[in-house]
Design goal:
three-stranded antiparallel β-sheet, Aspartate Aminotransferase, domain 1, globular, alpha/beta, 390 residues, 13 helices, homodimer
Chain lengths: 390, 390
Amino acid sequence: MSTEQTSRRASRVSPFIVMDVLRMAGEMAARGEDVIHMEVGQPFGPAADKAIAAAHAALDGDDLGYTEAKGIAPLRERIARHYEETYGVPVDPARIFVTTGSSGAFVLAFLAAFDAGDAVGLANPGYPAYRNIFHALNITPELIETGPESRWAPPIEAVRARLKAGMKGLLVASPANPTGVMLSADALRALIHETEAAGGWFISDEIYHGLSYGMAEHTALEFSSRAIVINSFSKYYGMTGWRVGWMIVPEPLVRAAEVLAQNMFINTPTISQHAAIAAFDATDELEARKAVYAKNRAFLTGALPKIGFADFAPVDGAFYIYCDVRAHTRDSYDFARRILRETRVAVTPGLDFDPGRGQHYVRFSFCGSHEDMRRAVARLGEWMRAQGHV
Amino acid sequence: MSTEQTSRRASRVSPFIVMDVLRMAGEMAARGEDVIHMEVGQPFGPAADKAIAAAHAALDGDDLGYTEAKGIAPLRERIARHYEETYGVPVDPARIFVTTGSSGAFVLAFLAAFDAGDAVGLANPGYPAYRNIFHALNITPELIETGPESRWAPPIEAVRARLKAGMKGLLVASPANPTGVMLSADALRALIHETEAAGGWFISDEIYHGLSYGMAEHTALEFSSRAIVINSFSKYYGMTGWRVGWMIVPEPLVRAAEVLAQNMFINTPTISQHAAIAAFDATDELEARKAVYAKNRAFLTGALPKIGFADFAPVDGAFYIYCDVRAHTRDSYDFARRILRETRVAVTPGLDFDPGRGQHYVRFSFCGSHEDMRRAVARLGEWMRAQGHV
């Protein structure tokens, strides 16, 4: 018996390198070492008090049985109201699906829209699960290179050329992971129209909406009723382990997505659905948390350049700083491991996000407490100076 | 724009007909009608008190952030202990995955073991999500006919012939849905050995374990360390909407399944994992619930034959009665709709479980309260007499 027996598609799915970093960090913490986490997008602290109170109430008042596959009506209606209030876009709740995190939404959207063998575009660097889910579902990822020269956006000419060559869709995130870069309204509109004019599906990952530091946020639904929009309660709402997100699909995909959801998920965790409704009413708490991110961002964008981390993508949104470290290393994995071992600060090597140029990048996540950010910079600064990097 | 734009694989996934029944039942209930539910496998009442208490504690004491993709260590260790205590089988917790219901386990197991184009065997009738997830993942379902003549078990000769023709695996449930039939130890062992001798993967769906009414339960792990075992907290433990289950995979699949889980699910709902640990300590509550099912089973197997529902599969386990109704109808969907409309008792047409012969069957679920079962029989008996069926 050998590992050759795993499926070929599973063997194409690559592990998250950050998981190795997490494991090392966990082992160090278990030995009593004080590790500061800048590697994962895990917002500090629990969900908003109102969401937790709603969960307590649901535990006592609801049987927490199966729900409709698309999610409970009050949550879908509340999400519709959110689009009306936030973006001025009316959305029929019938097109809204509550999903098991954005992960569940990706699986449903990809299966509803794409067949085995289809090629679909992704920005490189990007969230690694996109291309890994593609591999699992026999969809071919078409990596579209982005970088400082395109302000980390997929160049429209490259998208056009791939569509012409048969690409069936394009997935774009704004704010993006790992770069934090956002698209302007014009840039987003242009990518949507280019994709849809060629008959492709445009998928907009809006999971970091709510976390912009000045630039206006736009949902793809402002520009198209045919776009597929995916979002989550994990980031702005701080409810990662609750596994609750949502997607909005155009009318022609509703039935297919519903039948897939019935069979593959049955329903999104019931208690999380109840808590999510209340999360929409926790604006004060959530804005206070966002203010910490903003403070972290201001501090880090000022302090990191002074300790040798000067070349990073514009931090428009989300809570990531994607930094070019080629002046210090040619192996970001080794670099991240040394930083962790010697400073007890965990960061993510860029290889997770970009299998090629990621060797030259690391991602700092700043969704931790402000004190942790200050302590991390002190440690990193001392180390960088000791290494002669500054 | 047209629905032709959904993927071909999504269009092969069929909706659950029971969902139409559920929708009609819901509409009737919304009009104030008193509908009795015998259509879905939704155990009556909430989770065990101990599980709910653990969830309250987790809400107050844990940030409910991301967990390891495989699930929290205390739960995986508790599941390992369950195998030791219940079946006398030692299982390395490293092979145990906590999953987002058994649904999540199916997706991970199928992707880890099978490639697009592989043919995998399923008993017909069977749980419709098996074949629908197969269609979504481009796996070809090989339906193996079962019936009274094989005591509703896949005949070993048919399995052998399909394996010889290239079938890559076999999925079997005992107790089974919709029949409630269980396999003897010898029958289970023979199917496993036949499948594995041909190099195929044997997947054992043990979601109805704990709900046997006399026959001994056997896990596939008693007979093979290469079998894939799937289970859930939804049925015996009564935690459907919590979306928490587990799977045990052989060593060669562990890494592939872990990487798939990281990318496709991230983690199983954190609060549900904490509650699940406590559910193992709620034996008194869970056995009391099972005693209600046993009482329902005794009542229905006695009462149904007197009102024209005499020909059903042996009710060894689970909480279903799969009844041949060809004496009364040639269209089980129409029959179920009439019963619902005219008696306000919801039952599931067999078509969900068997696209062919299902026309002649309905499934009664008896996981509701005992009083509901008595009221349902009174209504059904009156209707069957009025129809001249008795």
